[in-house]
Specification:
The chain has two domains: about 70 residues, Gyrase A, domain 2; about 150 residues, Cyclophilin-like (Cyclophilin). The chain starts with 6 loop residues before the first strand and ends with a strand. It is an alpha+beta fold and about 240 residues long. The chain is about 25% helix and about 30% strand. The strands form three sheets. The protein has a seven-stranded mixed beta barrel. It is built from five helices and 14 strands.
Length: about 240
Amino acid sequence: MSGFPISIRPFGAHAILIEWPKRVEETILTDILNFTDYLKNVCLQGEHWEMVPAYNSVTLIHRDRPIDFNSFKEKLSQWYNDEWSVTQTKRFLWRLPVCYDEEFGIDLPLVAKNLHISEEEVVRLHTSHTYTLYGIGFLPGFMYLGGLPEALEIPRKSQPRAKVIQGSVGLAGKQTGIYPQDSPGGWNIIGNCSVRMFDPRKEEPCFINVGDKVQFYPIEKAEYDLHKIEGEVGIYKLDKSVWNA
């Protein structure tokens, strides 16, 4: 059982959107994930249900048939007020390598200038914090990572680029993220992650889940190139540990 006020509304014929208070808080995200785990393991078992948690919501999707909203809303309200007794899904801490060389950190000098700190301090701050994955969008595998230190908060670029290369690590507002593929984008690019964040050929195309933690560490260009080769031949080993053990 939790104490947050929630709203429940239809989201098309096959989906329902449950919303929490519109604040970016880890306690709210934890409540969302715990309730999602409860629904998956107790109330809505089966492959025909898909659940998509994010910053302040979880979307429930029935793949096979439309949902009777009025009756289902009552059930959801009751389930949310139940005493939850379910083993929580493990959350992981992922350590991801980033090369901040000038070849990749194309906005790093301007970011440092606008924030009135050195480029080295930008890198130090970016790698000294642990981030929480609050949501995945606007591209498959694009991670919205919250927990950026206040000293690195910077607005999106006023003029987006037509092409941001895959792996680019950017800053925007209170968030940092990694572009999973080449795409247009308006985030301030400070480096490039050598790990492929989204691979549709794999059973789990995006290996990091909402609620997981991410920490970046700096690497040189030679190590970046090595990681790319290891990734292509399938021998790169991801660095992860259980966060909520």
